[in-house]
């Protein structure tokens, strides 16, 4: 199983001074698919699309939220509350 992650670690020093409405987002071509991740409107999210393999996405905000075994060509989407002053994690994976 291929697996990837990014840490949205308080979005690098300056975010601590921003309001809770501050957002962070990224998009990458990884593992043969497209991965969108970030925080927005008080939520952390991970969206992953792979057109030829089973795949999934996860977020961790102190608790793990995961979707897996998503068929090729369908977005795997997961969202959870973005807790202030906590490190959030976003992940993607393809099935073995």
UniProtKB/TrEMBL annotation:
Origin: domain of life: Bacteria
InterPro entries per UniProt: Lactococcin_972
Gene3D superfamilies: 2.60.40.2850
Keywords, alphabetical: Signal
Signal peptide span: 1-25
Protein name (database record): Lactococcin 972 family bacteriocin
Native organism taxonomy: Bacteria, Bacillati, Actinomycetota, Actinomycetes, Micrococcales
